[in-house]
Amino acid sequence: MRRPAPHPVAPWVRTRLRAAPGAAAALALLVALTACLAGAYPRAVDRYEDAGLRTALRQARPDHTTVRVTAPQPDLGLPAGRRAEAMRPAALERQYAKVLGAAAGPLTVDRAQSAYGVAATVSPEVPDPFLPRPSGLPARVWLVAPNGLAGHSRLRAGRLPRAARPVGSATPEVEAAVTAATAKSMNIEVGSVVHVPAPGRRPLAVRVTGVVVPREPGGAYWSTTPLQRTPELVTLPTPGPDPAKYWRGALLLPQDAAPALLGTGTDPVRYWYLAPDLRGLRAHDLDRLKSAVAALESGPGLRRARAVTDSGTDVATELDDTLTLFARLRSGISPLVSVAAAGTGTVVAVVLLMTGGLAADRRRAELALLRARGASLPGLTGRLLAETAVVAVPAGALGLAAALPAVPEGRLWPAVVTAAAVTLTGCAALPLRAALAHRTVRATAPREDVAGVRPSRRRTVAELTLLVLAVGAVAALRRRGTSDDQLVAVAPVLIGVVAALVLLRLYPLLLRRLTGPARRLRGAVGHLSLARAGRTSASAVLPLLALLTALTTAAFGGSVLAGVADARDRAALLTVGADARADADGPLPAAVPGRVRALPGVRAVAPVSIDYQAEPEDGQDPVPLVGADPRSYGELTARTGLGAVPGGRLAGRTGTLPAVASPSVASAYGTRRPFPVRLTDGSAVTVRIVLVRDRTPAVSGGDFLVVDRAGLADPANRPTALLVTGAHLDPAALRHAVGGSAGIHVRAEERARYADSPLQTGAVHVYTAAVAAGAGFAVLALLLGLLRAAPERAALLARLRTMGLTRAQGRRLLVLESLPQALLAALGGVLTGWSAIRLLSPGVDLTTIALPSAGTPLTEAELHADAWSLTVPALLVLVASVAVAALQAWWTGRQGSVRELRAGETG
C-alpha cells in the first residue's frame, strides 16, 4: 500500500517575512540608517584629524618640518681629488637614494620638494661696492649648490649657471644664479661678479648669469632655508636708536661647481633635505610618526643615515615639536567628542533593543504557543536570529556602502567594525528578548506593572554597581581632567543610567503621592489615567534610559557648544576691545572720527590716545597710558563689561588726574599718593589711582593706566585709536573711512580667526551631528515606547466608549496617562543634564577646542550649564509625548470601536 506523500512545510524565514513585510522593512530601514551613521562617524573623525595635522604642519612651515640630514665636508687628510669627488652630484644622488630608505614607517617623503646638495655654513663678507651697505657694513653671501634648480624655477633674465669643465677647490671662477628678490634687494644684475674671500689664494669670482623666480616659493625646496629664496636684512644687537644692519643673500651655484666651496673659508657641508609628504600623513599614525622622527634624530634611522653617508652625519628637525603640539591639541578635543559619541551610541543601542522588544511583545502569544508545543529555547532563538539576520545583514551592508562614499576619507576597518556592531545588535535584539521572556514555559504571561513589581536582588546589586562606577568616574574626572578619553566619554552616560534607575524607583512613590489630589477631582478620567500610568510595564527602563541619556548628552553638548561660542566671543572682545577698532601709530586725522560715526550700523565711537611707552616715576617697565573721554569711554566699558568705569570718576582736566589702573600697577604705585608719569613726547602728567580694574577695552594687556584725555598736553591728547560699537559693521566701509591712516580690527573677523584649525571646526561639526543624531533616536525611542502600548490603548478606548466615554474624555485620558512618564523624563533630563555639567565641569577645559594654539587674552574657558540646552530638549520631549497621545486618541476615534471590540482582550 502506497504511503501518502508528505505535505511540504513552508520555510520559517520566508513565512515570517511574508506575514509581516512592513515590520521587516522598518527593521531594514532602521539598521541601514544606523549602520550608515555608525560607519560615517569614525571616518569623519579621521578626516578632520588628518586635515588638522596637515594644517598644523603647513602652518609650521618647511623650515620647521623638513628633516635636515647634513654631513661635514670630506676629511682634510684625503686627497684633493677624492674630496672633490665626494661633493659632486653623482655621489650625492647615490647617497640621497639611500638616505630616503632611512625614513621608514609612516614618515612619507615628498620627493618633488626634497633636495640635496652642498651649502656653506659661513656667510663671508664680500667687498664689492655695488652691493648695498645700509649701515656701512659690507654685505654677506651664502653659497649653495642645490639639485634641480632648473625644475624648481623659471628664468627671468639671462641663463642658468653651468660648469663648462671640472671644478675643484682651486677653480678661480664659477657661475651662479640669484632669485628675483635677491637681485632686487642687493642690486645684483646679470653679469655682476661677486668676489668671495678664500684663504691662501685670490678670492673666488662668482659671476651671476641668470635671475630666477621660484615656481613654488612656499614649497620645501625653497622654504626649508628661506635665505635661498629671499635675502635678509640682519640687525646687529648694538646699543643706540639705529642699530647696525647688513644684507645677506644666496648665490645659487650649479651642482657641478660644488667642489669650489672647498677652496673657500665657508666650511661647506653636504645636505639631504627630506620634506614630509603631507598627503601621506595620518593622525591615527601620530605615535608611530613621532617614533619614526625620533629614530631618525637619535636612533636606528640615524645609524642607517651615517652608514650610507658619513660617520659625522647629523639629523635635525623641529617636526617632532609640531607633532607634539598637535597631539596636545587633539588630546584636549577628542575627549569632548567622545562624550557625544558615547551618548549617541547608547541611545542607538537602546533603540535597537527596543525594536526587538517591541517585536517580541507583539508575538508573545505566538512564541508562548510554540514553547508550549515543545519548541526548544535554542531552536526558537536560532530561528528568530535567522529571521532578523536575513533582513538586518543586507541592510547593514547597504548602510556601510552608503557611508563610504559619503565620507570618502578615513580608515576602512573602524567603519566596518561600527557598522558590524550595529548589525549584530539589530540581529540579536529580538532573539535575546524572546529568549529572556520565554525561558520558562507559561500558560499566561505575568504582569510587570511598574507600580506593583518588586525589584529583585540582582537588580538592586546591578544598580548599586552602576552607582559606584558613576561616582568613581565623576570623582576621577574631576581630579584628573580630560586626560582619559574613555572616562570622559562614559561619565555622562553612567550618570544618565543611574538617573534612569533612580527615577524608576521613585516613579511608584510619585504616583501614590498623586492619588490624594486625584480623589478631589470630579469624574473618572483622573483616577483612570493614574491607574493606567501605574500599569506601565516595568521594562519602560529602556525608553527612559534613552531619553535621559539623550537629554544629558544634548545638555552637555549644547553647553559645550555654547561655552565654545562664549569663549570665542569673549576672547575676540578682549582682543579688540569693542565691536571694531582703528589703531594708528600716530594721531589720527581730525575728520576720521566723524566719518566713522556716520557709517551705517555704528552706535558709538570712543576716541582714545594710547602711549604704550609711558614711564611712571621710579618704574622699571613702561606702562600703557590711555587718554579717554570720560563719558564715551564710560559708556563703552559699561556696554562691553570690561572694567566698568563711571564717567565722573575720570573727569579731571588740571592738576592731579584721577586714573584707572590694573591691579599690578595699583600694587606697584599705590592708590593713596599721586605719582608722575612721563610720556613719549617728553611731557609729563601727575596721576592718582582712584579705581582698580582687571581689564579695560583700550589695552589688551595686563598693565594700564586710564586718564581723562583732556588733561593731557598736545599732541598726547590727540586720538590714536577709535573704539567702535555697533551692529553689522562693514569692515570694508571702516577701512575706507579711515583710509590708510589706521589699521582696522573687527571683532567678528577676530572671532572667526579663532577657529584656525580643521581639528577644532571638524570636532564642533561632528559633535553637533552626533548630538542631533542622538536626539533623533531618542524621539524614535519615545515613539517606539508609545507604539508598544498603542493596541492596548486602542482596545481600552473602544471598551470605554461603549460605557459612555466621550471622544474629548478619551483624548484627555490618553494625554493624562502619558503625562507622568513624559514629565518624569523631562524633569529628570533637566536635572541629570545640570548635574552632569556641574559634576564634570571642574575636569573639562574648553580652551583647546574654543581658541587657537596661539596666545589669546582669554587663558581659560570653563564649562557652564546653558539654560537653552537644558530646557528646550526636555520641553520637546514633553510636547512630543503629549502630541502623540492626542494624535492616537484622535485617530482611534475616527476608526470606530467595532474592530477593537471584535479583536478581544489583549491587555
Query: What composes the largest sheet?
Result: 10 strands, mixed
**Distance linking N and C termini:** 52 Å
Question: What is the beta-strand fraction?
Answer: 5-15%
Ranges where pLDDT stays below 50 over 5 or more residues in a row are: 903-907
* Estimated structural class: alpha+beta
Total helical elements = 29
Q: What is the mean pLDDT? A: 83
Overall 3D shape: flat
Determine the fraction of residues in helical runs and give it as a percent range.
Answer: 40-55%
Keywords summarizing the entry:
single chain, 907 residues, ten-stranded mixed sheet, seven-stranded mixed sheet, 29 helices, flat
Précis, in short:
The protein has 907 residues and is of the alpha+beta class. The chain is 53% helix and 13% strand. The strands form three sheets. Strands 14-17-18-16-19-15-13-20-12-21 form a ten-stranded mixed beta sheet.
3D structure, described in words:
- This protein is of the alpha+beta class.
- It contains 29 helices and 21 strands.
- It has a 10-stranded mixed beta sheet with strand order 14-17-18-16-19-15-13-20-12-21. Strands 8-9-3-2-10-1-11 form a 7-stranded mixed beta sheet. Strands 4, 5, 6 and 7 form a 4-stranded mixed beta sheet that branches.
- A hairpin with a 5-residue loop joins strand 17 (675-678) and strand 18.
- The longest helix is centred in the middle third of the chain and has 44 residues, at 319-362.
- 44% of the residues are buried.
